[in-house]
Design brief:
The complex is a heterodimer of chains A (309) and B (179). With 309 residues, chain A is α/β, with parallel strands linked by helices. Chain A is built from eleven helices and nine strands. A five-stranded parallel sheet of chain A has the order 7-6-5-8-9, with helices on both faces. A four-stranded parallel sheet of chain A has the order 2-1-3-4, with helices on both faces. In chain A, helix 2 crosses helix 11 and helix 5 crosses helix 11. With 179 residues, chain B is of the alpha/beta class. Chain B has three helices and eight strands, in the order E-H-E-H-E-E-H-E-E-E-E. Chain B has a five-stranded parallel sheet, sandwiched between helices. In chain B, strands 1-8-7 form a three-stranded antiparallel sheet. In chain B, helix 1 crosses helix 2. Classes of the chains: A alpha/beta (309), B alpha/beta (179). The interface between A and B is medium-sized, with 24 and 23 residues.
Chain lengths: 309, 179
């Protein structure tokens, strides 16, 4: 397979296994490129990409922007807070105005689930979903699986537990889809109040006890507690959450095996994981960040190759 | 479809020896020279040249790398089929080195044009030369000429020059194929 089966990256659930294999293979080449003395290639010098962030983001936005610039694309940046959206303009009008400036591709983060799918039905440009509410965050799932493959050789057959705030997480859903597509076994672990009721219907195991989950898994993907998405209290106190679902060095050392620790960031140090775990050799958090640029370069490159001039 | 042999295995071997000797005349001990095989098909020729230099002519410590030019091509999104990348393996600095590009067939010159841009990601070479097994004269789109040529051929655009290597499970040979 040398071409993606899709024209947009709206979510992992729209991809086939072969798409992910192609993205990984292309990302391997880009990882070599970004470790060269000069990290830029001219492939996309006639492509213009608009980064439309209707919701705050630091690392995803920086990662996409860096990926675009390393491919030599022209980049437009848009933040909703400082835009006409605040004046009442609709999503389609905002995007159409931007597209009138001859933009070829849109990278969009939006607080509403399905915003990317909605937009893809109304505009011509290629769309990459950079996170839509608590729905999907496909490039994060791809870079997470790529990082597992890099550390453990392959994803198939591995046991991965996603720990924490599953309910409000777009990373969890995309990760579940991607890991299962690549042949991994997936478990979710967290307070019952932060696990969606339908979660077992996705074919994942559910475990409320963190120690049991860690004893089962090869990889623990620790999610941030998304306080900003919580309108009510889902657990009594942060201290109690830390005691039950926080990972510390002592807990890891009491296991009879060495598991891999992941975190999509930003970390609440001392909440999901302690500093000594975050900075240990078991954690591949910074590898995830590096791989994020290579994965996003691969996705942008492969989607751009389907735009014929 | 018809095909005619341009070089058989024996003629190819003689040609490779001649190319290796020409390189030695210009580069002597290769202490300041690096060989770069252009992916995907130049790497077989580059491997052969390196092996000959080492075994037949006792040149030691030759640096050889493979350069993929996919992301530097000027026909991205213009071809019928998507471009597929190959691996780049250059584990040395090319800054101030004499670089010899090695490719099997020189046709339009666009690949070498892309390679000239790509190699700059690894430093600024002192100079760059081009060694090619087959030079398809009169087919150039860009002002690029080889410094070392195995054989020149006046194939028309409908004809294809096919280089086969025993490393690919085929007999060493060069054919001109007319469809």
């Amino acid at each position: 397979m040398s071409e993606l089966s899709v024209n947009h990256l709206l979510g992992i659930k729209y991809l086939q296994r072969e798409d992910i294999d192609l993205i990984f293979e292309t990302a391997d080449h880009f990882k070599e490129v970004i470790n060269r003395p000069i990290k830029k290639v001219p492939s996309l010098r006639d492509i213009t990409i608009a980064n439309l962030f209707f919701e705050n983001s630091t690392r995803t936005k920086l990662s996409f922007e860096l990926a675009e610039k390393r491919l030599s694309a022209d980049v437009l940046n848009f933040s909703a807070a400082a835009s006409s959206v605040a004046k009442g303009e609709t999503l389609i009008d905002t995007v159409n105005n931007i597209l009138s400036m001859k933009v070829d591709m849109v990278v969009m983060r939006h607080p509403n689930p399905g915003a990317g799918v909605f937009l893809s039905k109304h505009i011509q440009a290629s769309i990459i979903n950079a996170g839509d509410g608590a729905h999907e965050h496909p490039t994060q799932a791809l870079l997470d699986c790529f990082s597992i493959r890099e550390r453990l050789g392959e994803v198939a057959g591995k046991k991965v537990v996603i720990v924490g705030d599953i309910l409000h997480s777009r990373v969890a859903l995309s990760n579940i889809f991607a890991l299962q597509l690549l042949g991994a076994e997936v478990m979710v672990c967290g307070p019952k109040t932060l696990l969606p009721k339908y979660i077992e219907s996705l074919g994942v195991k559910v475990e409320l006890n963190l120690r049991k989950a860690l004893e089962w898994c090869d990889v623990a993907n620790m999610l941030r507690v998304q306080n900003e998405r919580m309108e009510i209290s889902y657990f009594p106190t942060t201290r109690e959450y830390v005691q039950q679902y926080g990972v510390n060095k002592e807990l890891l050392e009491s296991l009879d095996k060495e598991i891999v620790i992941m975190h999509p960031g930003p970390i609440n140090r001392g909440v999901e994981i302690t500093s000594d775990v975050a900075d240990s050799g078991q954690a591949i958090i910074l590898n995830q960040v590096e791989n994020g640029v290579a994965i996003r370069m691969a996705v942008i490159y492969l989607l751009a190759s389907k735009i014929k001039k | 479809m018809s095909q005619k042999v341009l070089l058989n295995a024996k003629a190819l071997q003689v040609t490779l020896h001649r190319l290796a000797c020409q390189l030695i005349e210009n580069h002597h001990d290769f202490s300041n020279t690096v060989l770069i095989g252009i992916q995907p098909r130049g790497i077989y020729l580059a491997d052969r040249i390196k092996a000959l230099l080492e075994k037949a002519y006792d040149v030691a410590d030759i640096k050889l790398g493979y350069l993929d030019i996919t992301f530097f091509r000027d026909d991205f999104r213009r071809g019928e089929s998507p471009l597929e990348a190959n691996t780049t393996q250059i584990n040395f600095i090319v800054e101030n080195k004499k670089v010899v590009f090695i490719d099997d067939v020189l046709y339009t010159g666009r690949s070498i044009n892309a390679a000239l841009t790509a190699i700059q990601s690894f430093g600024r070479p002192a100079e760059v030369e081009l060694l090619t097994l087959i030079d398809r004269r009169f087919s150039r789109h860009l002002p690029i000429q080889p410094d070392y040529t195995g054989r020149k051929v006046d194939a028309i655009n409908e004809e294809k020059v096919k280089v086969s290597w025993k490393e690919q499970g085929q007999e060493d040979s060069v054919y001109v194929i007319k469809s």
